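Sequence in, structure out. Go.
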Amino acid sequence: MGVQKKEASRPKKVPGNLKLKGENFYRDRKKVQYINMLKGGRAKHDSKGNLVKAAPFQSTEATPARIEPNRKLFGNTRVIGQKALDEFREQMSTKINDPYQVLLRRSKLPTSLLHDNTHIGRVNMLQTETFGDTFGPKAQRKRPKLNVEGYDQLVSKITDSEGTYDHKKDANLLANQQSDFTDAARDWYFSAGTSKRIWNELYKVVDSSDVILHVLDARDPEGTRCRHVENYIKTEAPHKNLIYILNKVDLVPTWVTARWVKVLSREHPTLAFHASISRSFGKGSLIQLLRQFTRLHSDKRQISVGLIGYPNTGKSSIINTLRQKKVCNVAPMPGETKVWQYITMTRRIYLIDCPGIVQFSSSDTDTDIVLKGSIRTQSLLSPEDYIPEILSRVRKEYIQRQYQIDKWDDAHDFLSELATITGKLNKGGEPNLHVISKMVINDWQRGRLPHYRAPPEFSEPLPKQASSEQTDAATEKATVGADAEDETMEGASDNEEVESKRITLAELNINQIFSKIPVVAEYLPVDLEGDKDLKALEKIQGEEAAQKSNKKAAGKRKREAEVADTSDVEADWDEVFESAVKQDVG
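Output:
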């Protein structure tokens, strides 16, 4: 034996089964395995090209299959009848579709029986039509597929179409095709927020979150909803809890906030919020709700809360409000958050900030995208094209008060007057419409021009799943609390008990007193007429709460006086949890 480094490291006595094929003085065992890995994965052929040994997982030979032994194969099987299965599906479908109930644990719950598997495999077209019958000289001409059953039906269909035909609307005619101009290409900045990288960041946040907060702009809640993401969570991740956060409620009247909370609460729990480190609204209610979710998910050491929504809706500002300090970069312009980031709120609650996403919608025009705040005004090539829509959405009195302009004929006249007043002029005294248009759009996005989208009428009642407090959400209450309960559900058969832990989010009341919202925007009395009714309903609701508390305290005579004095004042979670974050952050 040699005394070199490789020879010295070899064992003195090599067993027969230890030596690998190809292992010698020049190649040790590790090197041989590496070479075999490079050579592997290929089929072996002889000199004539015949297959000698197939590549791994490419052999067509059917080897005998072997079933893994399991003791359950020899036990009693569980059988369910069709009637019991239908009852189970009906009962579970009503519970699963209820946004105010959460399924916490699935121990033996056969949720796969709720939906039938409708997976359609790949169709082998060659079994239906051979290649020779479709192409080539022997191709057989097939009968065309028509939407009619017979010749008479085809004739009647053609006769009806002749009566409604208009040659002026026929785009196939050369006379109707205008060749003088073509549609201009869409500007590049309209694709902001729709890139594949942004959506990958979104799906990372959705996959990593236990609770998802969908942040909406109170001035246009329906326009800032991402319905594609909502449908994705409902179908692909139904175990995740979705909650609406109606942000920027300080820019709309109080009654508008109350009514939008009522409308949105029909689908998912909704909270009103005003993001501000010094003077916020809804912070205590949100903290209380997240604490309830930590109690519900007691099997986890911590929960992750993801914030998603359109750009410039205030996702990062909400995180800063909850932490009471600047932990995320914020700016009054879209696109400030580039990647997702984790922020520790408490020892058991982690927040995930997500970049703003823009949902593609065929109904949204370029003007709608710009006015939603999804595009930076610095990038707009022709911002003066969007001023007429702003003038139509904002009351004339607000524009006159903001810019000190009394009369104008059209958008061009308005911009010219404003440029003259502010001194935005080019050489020769011509108004700089480009710069002044950007200034007006910035005022629109940052709340200097009061505006809001009116909530729809309330002809339909709220679903029964919502509590009575949630039904009166338009009168200052948004009940989205939770208390954990263990229930036993009867599922597949009568003798089988399926255990699951469910929670009703209306069990614990988290009351929001909307009259405490610090509304910054100055509205006219015409827009604030609904606040009077709101305060009257709030007073009636306080009296009802006083009566309930008096009934509960009927057996405690010593505390009747205290209850009578304090029952009129409801608990304000913003005051209760003012310093909750400071105590929990370690």
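Check: The chain is about 35% helix and 10% strand. The first helix runs from residue 5 to 9.
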